[in-house]
Design a protein that fits this description.
The chain contains 14 helices and 15 strands. The strands form 4 sheets. It has a 7-stranded mixed beta sheet with strand order 4-12-11-10-9-5-8, sandwiched between helices. A 4-stranded mixed beta sheet has the order 1-2-3-15. The chain has a two-stranded antiparallel ribbon with strand order 6-7. It is α/β, with parallel strands linked by helices and 436 residues long. The chain binds pyridoxal-5'-phosphate (PLP).
Length: 436
Amino acid sequence: MSAATRPTPASEALFTRARAVTPGGVNSPVRAFNAVGGTPRFIRSAAGAWLTDVDGHEYVDLICSWGPMLLGHAHPEVQAAVQAAVARGTSYGTPTEPEVELAEEIVDRAPVDRVRFVSSGTEATMSAIRLARGFTGRDVVVKFAGCYHGHVDALLASAGSGLATFAVPGTPGVPASSTELTLVLPYNDRAAVERVFAEHGDRIACLVTEAAPGNMGVVPPEPGFNRFLAETCARHGALFVSDEVMTGFRASRQGQWGLDGAVEGWRPDLVTFGKVMGGGFPAAAFGGRADVMGRLAPDGPVYQAGTLSGNPIATTAGLTTLRLATDEVYAHIGAAGETIKEAATEALSAAGVPHVVQASGTMFSVFLTDGPVRDFADASRTSAPAYAAFFHAMLDAGVYLPPSAYEAWFLSSAHDDRAVQTVVDALPGAARAAAA
Ligand code: PLP
């Protein structure tokens, strides 16, 4: 189907109104189509694997709200639980039973002894870093280029002029003083990690990393890399903070840790969570070792709080989602992903488009560059014009991909044969568009 056959006047009218009252017309930049051009589709409703826009067009959803919708949209059991919770009131500002149950579920699956709820992944990493600094009495934070941890000032940092030099702000509005205690290293680079710890080890409070980066496209940790990071931190008295906001309860039942730490026998000191554990509501968390979490207020001196933290609707949605996220769910998502990965490889190869498909557990990305992609510099070689053409051809054929070349493609247990076949059928035309 060509673009002309899918006119979008209602989305265009809403986008015009949106831009008059909201910067860029969107409430999070990646929702805009700046990287691919055109008008974002305004979505009216969603069910299962499908989105319906305000012009009545349907799309197979490969964004899944940027990760949370593990069970697909409007799952009947999640909806029923949420509706029952809403009927009991929406926020009390007191402890509630769903918070306890969700915390128990997370402690049961993930390598944490205690967990504290917040409302966004940004808050989770910001709070984890404060706690790591408070616990160790040190200030320096190490992160990797291409890893995104939310819009935390200290983590919106680009590498300085050389390895082991302190970072510069990655955006206007972040003072140099906010990033001057942040060190940014290339991902998957053990030698860089060793050098930085040799030089600054006694000042490093924590190293924070995406457990398997998904924000530069999916760049899996090389075998043993996370374990190496955990051991290096331990040797220098720094905390290893594993950001599982995207991978948690998504890459596998136990997140990325289920694919490496649980198998290799190590645990991070602190872990951040978000997305899936909120079941489509604003909920996130950080957790970790009992002695570290014990430093948090009210037990300890490190302050952290939130009016809507552990909100009963959000925790009910998250708890219901996690209870339904069985091994079968992950097996289904994995199998659907295999079919799409194979079809993408075949279509792009047939069209002669350089590409590499990378995965970590059930998360995957298609990079339009020769592989492998092992760090941000490699990911940056992706062809932006080719991706824009590919994206629009897919959209036109009824598949909503992330409007950026540097994102994971997300699936859900609701991606059934019809949805997967729609994606498979769209790929050859999109690959030819990318080649043009
Ligand atoms: N950490 C990771 C790994 C993420 O992918 C994200 C968001 O995409 C965040 C943190 C920030 O989460 P939020 O957007 O809920 O603030």
